[in-house]
Design a protein that fits this description.
The chain is an alpha/beta fold and about 300 residues long. It is built from twelve helices and nine strands. The strands form three sheets. The chain has a five-stranded parallel β-sheet with strand order 2-5-8-1-9, with helices on both faces. A two-stranded antiparallel ribbon has the order 3-4. Strands 6-7 form a two-stranded antiparallel ribbon. About 0% of the residues have low confidence.
Length: about 300
């Protein structure tokens, strides 16, 4: 039986991952829920650190990891496995030189996919953005999470059910339903997991992460984060800047060996480019983009 075992990874704790009281509390709660046998679901907007948190949590469990990324084209067979190709066996018997016997057999070949491997070997499954997959593809998870049994549709030989190994753990991530390309998760599936809503980090966590990821000073990281957070709080659409934008600004000014300063036109240009990269002409607070530029300049003036 072939499988997708090359997808198994050994998680290594990220030494650069920032642990603040806010993050530590989430990690401690998540480990408790997983130990009790419940999957954990991190739900939050882009840029709230869901995937990084899931990876760090998986490393804390200290079990090999298999990762799935939600896909609208997924079918159940993409998660579980299916019959793929054929295996042939031919036996030629010429023991008696004038008598030739041949026997040929052709069998379908079952190939395990990532969910099957995780269940069979007790691995940690990270299903990133699982609501990007269609609900009917994810239905197979219902019995996995509740009865600890995996149905193997299409398996014609051997067991048609797989007992989930006790060490199996599952971590899910998703964006809110209003995001493009997202399917509404079935209530029965959400009922089998514990959902932790992730918002934007608190200010101190954002400052610490920005400083560590970009290499700027703590004082400069604080100025950058204050600008980004104030801009975010005045936005009235989904395309709001996240921690990623703070890190981008920090990395760029670190590269250019500059400091955040209200009289530095180059710094202003960097902030304008990064904070408005996904904002169209009339997207920020109902005002033209020129008004957005002016508002960012006011924030730079205020915090620098």
């Amino acid at each position: 039986m072939k499988n997708d075992s090359s997808a198994v990874i050994e998680p290594i704790p990220d030494s650069e991952y920032v642990i603040t009281p806010y993050i530590k509390d989430i990690l401690n709660s998540s480990k408790t829920y997983l130990s009790a046998g419940y999957p954990v679901h991190f739900c939050g907007a882009a840029g709230t650190g869901k995937t990084s948190l899931a990876m760090y949590l998986a490393a804390e469990i200290k079990r090999p990891v298999i990762m799935l990324h939600g896909d609208d084209e997924f079918a159940t067979s993409d998660l579980v496995g299916a019959q793929h190709g054929f295996r042939s066996k031919k036996v030629v018997d010429n023991f008696i030189h004038h008598v030739l016997k041949t026997e040929e057999r052709v069998d379908k070949q079952w190939v395990d996919k990532r969910l099957s491997l995780a269940c069979k070997h007790g691995l940690t499954l990270i299903y990133d953005e699982f609501t990007r997959s269609r609900p009917e593809a994810n239905n197979v998870l219902l019995s996995v999470l509740e009865e600890k049994m995996l149905d193997l549709p299409g398996q014609t030989e051997g067991d048609v059910y797989l007992k989930v190994q006790p060490d199996f753990r599952a971590i899910f991530t998703s964006n809110p339903e209003e995001y493009a390309g997202i399917h509404r998760a079935q209530d029965a599936l959400l009922d089998r997991m514990i959902t932790i809503e992730l918002g934007h980090f608190d200010a101190q966590t954002e400052v610490t992460i920005t400083q560590k990821r970009s290499g700027v000073s703590l004082a400069d990281a604080k100025k950058i984060v204050n600008i980004v957070r104030d801009f975010r709080e005045n936005a009235e659409n989904n395309k709001v800047p996240t921690l990623r934008e703070s890190i981008k600004i920090g990395k760029v000014i670190k590269l250019l060996k500059m400091r955040p300063a209200k009289n530095n036109d180059k710094f202003k240009k960097i902030c304008l480019d990064i904070l408005t990269s996904e904002i169209h002409v009339f997207e920020f607070n109902g005002a033209p983009k020129s008004g957005t530029f002016k508002f960012i300049e006011e924030l730079i003036e205020q915090h620098c």
